[in-house]
Amino acid sequence: xxxxxxxxKLSRRRSPWVYVLNAGSCNGxxxxxxxxxxxxxxxxxxxxxxxxxxxxxxxxxxTGPLTLRSxxxxxxxxxxxxxxxxxxxxxSCPATGNVFAGSPTVEDGVLxxxxxxxxxxxxxPRPQAILAGVQEAAHLLAEGKTGRWHKEKHHE
Length: 156
Ligand code: SF4
Description:
- Residues 26-135 form the NADH:ubiquinone oxidoreductase-like 20kDa subunit domain.
- Its cofactor is [4Fe-4S] cluster.
- The protein is of the alpha/beta class.
- It has a single domain (16-143), classed as Rossmann fold, CATH 3.40.50.12280.
- It has 5 helices and 5 strands, in the order αβαββαβαβα.
- It has helices at 3-14, 28-35, 68-80, 92-96, 127-143; strands spanning 17-22, 49-50, 59-63, 86-90, 118-120.
- A 5-stranded parallel beta sheet has the order 2-1-3-4-5.
- The radius of gyration is 15 Å and the shape is globular.
- It binds iron/sulfur cluster.
- The site of iron/sulfur cluster has 13 residues, from α2 and α4.
């Protein structure tokens, strides 16, 4: 592996930039993500920074069951993140729809719309678990192993 590749790999693992997207959550998961910015959980301890634009991000954190109305926005924001990129589904909602599963207004999971690399279960998950999810995603980015789960959903 060349020097440039080694530096790139180290950068992806040690300083991932994160964009947070609410796809119809109750805000419970978003409040836990907010804790990552506090001194107690401090996302910057692993080098991660929250970004205001998807164009500057490496990792997309998604919360919520993915409402039908938000699906196009999620696709668009995912497309704006430069490659390579990773997606962390925060909470049980983006994994399965959770308490909203079966509703005609939700997709029952983010992986029907974008590939998901890490699922962080819980309703809501603890901040430590979300931080571990970000670390896992950064590791997958560095190893070039992203885009693990994707399942197209066909609407009738
Ligand atoms: S997983 Fe629970 S806390 Fe998180 S958005 Fe869904 S219902 Fe709210």
